Amino acid sequence: MTTQSTTSASNPTANSQSALLLILRLRTFIALIAVFAFFAFAAPNFLTAANMVIMSKHVALNAFLAIGMTFVIITGGIDLSVGSIVGLCGMVAGWLVLFGVDFGLGWSIQFNTLEIIAIVLCVGVFVGMINGLLITKLSVAPFIATLGTLYVARGAALLFSDGRTFPNLNGNPEYGSDTFVLLGAGSVLGIPITIWILIFVGLGAAYLASRTPLGRHIYAVGGNEKGAALSGVKVNQVKMFVYMFSGLCAAIVGLIISSQLVASHPATGETFELNAIAAAVLGGTSMSGGRGRIAGTIVGAFVIGILSDGLVMMGVSSFWQIVIKGLVIIAAVVVDQAQQKIQSRVALQSQAALGK
């Protein structure tokens, strides 16, 4: 045993592979430090307190979607509909704040802020449930199923107002809906309510992923679906949950954006799914399923958010911003594949050393 340990320790190839593997595992943190340092020097007013607050809110929106997307990708799926769910839920929120539910003949129901939030969250979960049913009951591929709901949800958002904006969502004190604006603009202990919600959702998702049987089942489904089914995991129920949770996260974003802007627009959320996928993959979630961490996803969301805001502050064209985000996604996938290959090589070398 001593001889084997000495041989392993003196093997420069094994040491270099271990060092490279460590760097790859920490790539998201390294990327975060790099983009933050770059824009701190290159972008004017980047480090101001006002910009930090605005940027944290933007990051939170990406993080909510990325958390839901992480669970979906871990199971080996994809959810392209989250951006459209954001737009749909924003329009539902705007409609409820302005009009309530009108049954005609002078009879209508008005809702307070908590009821509006609950209804909108249910809408997001419902669309996620539709995704789950298409995938589990009708065996539609996740890409196709969520692409279809992307169009349906976006069309429904446009139908709500014939493509127009719902403005002035200040609510009515008589119905208790005037506090809706606090969701996106309010703060507690000097920290925006949006960030508090992200902390709650992030910690809850991390606990679910690492400390509960459901979390272990999510990883098992992504790692080996047939093996998970044979071991007693209810695969269809797990998939239903992750898509419904993704819809819930998208509904939260729709609520927050409508509250921040005090308006709802049916085009809200376009291309948001790309940022969510980018943040999840950059945070170490494997597109092949079975691997990913919520903490890494949140760091990935910070990278994407800082990159987006920093490029805007530098005056970079929005067209180039899209190109750069695409390159980031490609680079993240390439690095993830490299990490898996090195891990496999190191594991084989360790098995070979133990067999000698």
Summary tags:
356 residues; mainly alpha; ABC transporter involved in vitamin B12 uptake, BtuC; two-stranded antiparallel sheet; 2% strand; globular; disordered N terminus; transmembrane; cell inner membrane; cell membrane
Describe the protein's architecture and organization.
This protein is 73% helix and 2% strand. By secondary structure, the chain is an all-alpha fold.
Structural shape: globular
Strand percentage, roughly?
under 5%
CATH architecture descriptor name: Orthogonal Bundle
Q: What fold name goes in the CATH topology slot? A: ABC transporter involved in vitamin B12 uptake, BtuC
Please give the order of strands in the largest beta sheet.
1-2
- Total strand segments: 4
- Class per helix and strand makeup: mainly alpha
How many DSSP H or I helices? 15
Protein name: ABC transporter permease
Keywords: Cell inner membrane, Cell membrane, Membrane, Transmembrane, Transmembrane helix, Transport
Subcellular location: Cell membrane
Organism: Sneathiella chungangensis
